[in-house]
UniProtKB/TrEMBL annotation:
<protein>
    <submittedName>
        <fullName>Rhomboid family intramembrane serine protease</fullName>
    </submittedName>
</protein>
<feature type="transmembrane region" description="Helical">
    <location>
        <begin position="115"/>
        <end position="139"/>
    </location>
</feature>
<keyword id="KW-0645">Protease</keyword>
<feature type="transmembrane region" description="Helical">
    <location>
        <begin position="177"/>
        <end position="199"/>
    </location>
</feature>
<dbReference type="InterPro" id="IPR050925">
    <property type="entry name" value="Rhomboid_protease_S54"/>
</dbReference>
<keyword id="KW-0378">Hydrolase</keyword>
<feature type="domain" description="B box-type">
    <location>
        <begin position="11"/>
        <end position="39"/>
    </location>
</feature>
<feature type="transmembrane region" description="Helical">
    <location>
        <begin position="151"/>
        <end position="171"/>
    </location>
</feature>
<dbReference type="Pfam" id="PF01694">
    <property type="entry name" value="Rhomboid"/>
</dbReference>
<feature type="domain" description="Peptidase S54 rhomboid">
    <location>
        <begin position="110"/>
        <end position="246"/>
    </location>
</feature>
<feature type="transmembrane region" description="Helical">
    <location>
        <begin position="76"/>
        <end position="95"/>
    </location>
</feature>
<keyword id="KW-1133">Transmembrane helix</keyword>
<feature type="transmembrane region" description="Helical">
    <location>
        <begin position="230"/>
        <end position="248"/>
    </location>
</feature>
<dbReference type="InterPro" id="IPR000315">
    <property type="entry name" value="Znf_B-box"/>
</dbReference>
<dbReference type="InterPro" id="IPR022764">
    <property type="entry name" value="Peptidase_S54_rhomboid_dom"/>
</dbReference>
<dbReference type="GO" id="GO:0008233">
    <property type="term" value="F:peptidase activity"/>
</dbReference>
<dbReference type="GO" id="GO:0006508">
    <property type="term" value="P:proteolysis"/>
</dbReference>
Length: 279
């Protein structure tokens, strides 16, 4: 026990982060007192919060087979997208929200945010539930393999691909040019196509995924008010990106992934510009 000179009284060891807490347990690395709240388990004894963070930063990062950072816990991106879609659906109860953010070729040239925001809107509770269920099933399998940034890029670009396909296949003199399109289906179809590619990359039987993809695509022609164009665009974009993400050589995986993402974004933008310029 240390003594404070001049007082003759012992100085109690206290946690640096919580000076009001006495602790006789010390960090195995820096040997400072550490209270129970600040203790982090180590291979031997405990470490303080600061030493634990430093050790974690210095540790080599474990990667998945496709280069995603190996993480424990829930799929953060998937849960975030689901939460945003649910909150936006609740906001759609307010006047004009759907009309301001839904995609329609007639308005998107002057209001380009519609290309993306439409993917977070939904036309009903069942529509929302089906898309979010599919997103949860695929996202929990695909996000850990690809990693967060590539999964996010895949989802958003597939959503943009869906809106772009609607624009390219709509006729300016027909009702389709002014029809509102909402829903995450385009992005979800991109994830369907991507998980098919990834499963093939691992040599697994992807027949069920392919059948499910085809059935849902065909339903777009049978069920009224379903945008098969959005499904098609999302699936094409998702498949193209997934090919690069899944088959890029290990030594160039990050560079090729970034390049493919940027090229796809530019390509979609170019298609949109050319389509409106041709009117």
């Amino acid at each position: 026990m240390a003594y404070q000179y001049g007082t003759g009284e012992p100085q109690m060891p206290v946690c640096p982060r919580h000076p009001d807490r006495v602790s006789y347990v010390r960090c195995q690395r820096c040997e400072r007192p550490v209270c129970p709240e600040c203790q982090r388990p180590a291979s031997v004894g405990v470490r303080c919060v600061d030493c634990a963070r430093q050790a974690q930063a210095a540790a080599p990062q474990v990667r998945t087979t496709l280069g995603g950072r190996s993480r424990s816990g829930r799929p953060v991106v998937t849960l975030t997208i689901i939460a945003v879609c649910v909150l936006v659906y609740l906001a759609q109860r307010l006047p004009d929200v759907t009309g301001m953010f839904a995609f329609t070729p007639a308005l998107a040239e002057g209001e380009p945010w519609r290309f993306l925001t439409a993917a977070f809107l939904h036309g009903g509770t069942l529509h929302l539930a089906l898309n979010m269920y599919a997103l949860w099933i695929i996202g929990t399998a695909l996000e850990p393999v690809l990693g967060r940034w590539r999964f996010t890029a895949l989802y958003l670009l597939s959503a943009l691909g869906g809106s772009t396909a609607v624009l390219l296949l709509a006729n300016p003199v027909e009702q389709s040019w002014g029809t509102y399109v909402v829903g995450a289906s385009g992005a979800v179809f991109g994830l369907f196509a991507a998980i098919f590619i990834v499963m093939r990359r691992f040599g697994r039987d992807a027949t069920q995924i392919l059948i499910l993809l085809v059935i849902n695509f065909v339903l777009g022609f049978i069920i009224a008010n379903v945008s098969w164009q959005s499904h098609l665009g999302g699936a094409v974009v998702g498949a193209l990106l997934a090919v690069v993400y899944a088959y890029a050589p290990r030594e160039n995986r990050t560079a090729l992934g970034v390049a493919a993402t940027a090229v796809m974004a530019v390509l979609l933008l170019g298609l949109v510009v050319l389509r409106y310029a041709a009117l």
